[in-house]
Design brief:
The complex is a heterodimer of chains A (138) and B (141). Chain A has 138 residues and is mainly α. Helix content of chain A is 46%, strand content 8%. Chain A has a three-stranded antiparallel sheet. Classes of the chains: A mainly alpha (138), B alpha+beta (141).
Chain lengths: 138, 141
């Protein structure tokens, strides 16, 4: 007696869908953190909050949409991700680090660290979309 | 009986920030330390964390020799002798059971020694001593 059937080899399609799925997870997490940084940032002129940016494989760069730097402050250059699947979140305002960690005369207002913590909380939910993203990519 | 158990304390990243203070460069050297804090007696875990960090650092005579300005929470008052140490809460999350019972808290603190950059060797030695006291440790308060 012979056995017959139809075989589907989906591994090439899965391999093609793998990278976009990972890029989406990385990009969506980065965009969430960017929004959290902007939302947590203390506001005086609004420049620092508006200078939060992300560079992601899925959505590209949001750098350069900030307001006018107050006084002698300025925007630091855009940081590039290490690889094609990586994302970067940054604050372009050159004084952001002093706000986050404090100075000799000012206590820390840790908007950045809290956004990173919020991002770490969100990441498992983003990563849980992996299978769905993989199937969508087939 | 202890108020809280510090289940672990470890450095998550180093910290070094320079700033201009009245035309003079000052350095802040230290690290971001992650704690896992479980309250034994009802109370606030962050308050217990501050108490534990301060008690560990203040008990070390080598460190108090490097930083005669003392240990401050958040900000040292103007005129404080340098170098001095600042502890500040940066971020943190609760670790809960499925039915929202708090198991412990994961706070992140910056611990840094601050002073004029001309005292860099002392600042570096103090930061190393802070790390020796806090990195990969545990305790109670």
């Amino acid at each position: 007696m012979s056995v017959s059937g139809v075989l589907y080899n989906l591994f090439p399609a899965l391999a093609r869908a793998l990278r976009p799925a990972c890029q989406t997870i990385s990009s969506d997490t980065a965009r969430f953190i960017e929004a959290a940084v902007a939302a947590n940032a203390p506001v005086r002129s609004g420049f620092m909050a508006s200078s939060a940016y992300s560079v992601t494989p899925k959505y590209g760069s949001t750098y350069g949409t900030m307001g006018t730097p107050p006084g002698d402050s300025y925007a630091l250059p855009e940081q590039a991700p290490d690889g094609p699947d990586d994302s970067v979140v940054g604050v372009a305002a050159n004084y952001g680090i002093y706000v986050n960690y404090g100075t000799r005369f000012m206590a820390a207002q840790p908007f950045w660290d809290q956004a990173m913590e919020q991002g770490a909380q969100v990441f498992p939910a983003e990563a849980a979309k992996f299978e769905k993203l993989l199937l969508e990519g087939l | 009986m202890s108020n809280a158990a510090i289940l672990s304390c470890y450095r998550e990243s180093p910290l070094e920030i320079d700033e201009l203070v009245n035309g003079e460069v000052w350095s802040n050297i230290g690290g971001l330390y992650r704690l896992q804090v479980q309250a034994i007696v009802p109370g606030h875990e962050l308050y217990y964390s501050f108490q534990w960090l301060k008690s560990v650092l203040a008990a070390d005579s080598t460190l108090t020799g490097y930083a005669p300005g003392g240990i401050w929470r958040g900000l040292a008052p103007s005129g404080t002798v340098t170098p001095f140490i600042v502890i500040a809460f940066q971020a943190g999350t609760d670790v809960l059971t499925m039915n929202a019972i708090r198991l412990f808290v994961n706070p992140l603190f910056q611990v840094k020694v601050t002073g004029p950059a001309t005292l860099s060797p002392t600042l570096g030695a103090a930061a190393a001593e802070i790390d020796a006291l806090l990195a990969r440790t545990s305790g109670t308060i």
